[in-house]
Amino acid sequence: MEYLLIWLGFAVVTAIAANARNHPTWLWFGIGLIGGVFALLAVLVMRPGESIAAVVQPRGVGAFSSDGIAEQYRGVAIRRNGDLFSIDGTLYADIQTARRAVDHRLDG
Asked: What is the pTM of this model?
């Protein structure tokens, strides 16, 4: 019985930690039920807002506005063109490269 309460405690703490890092609370509660302390460690090492899908799909790309903007980064609109990203017509292979281009443009 004590082990069940400890396991449930890990699930609750995992959900709280996930919520604090902008991750889906109920999903991580379920993962915490299955993974226990390992799920807690996993959510603690993830960056805030980073999802498991971030490995496959860059952050900020999941939801698009009606005008095709994938992300506003430092006040610059990064648009999605199929599998590529563009800033003022210049195409980039991934969102990170587009962000670096914005940084380079703004910081000189």
From this structure: 0.46
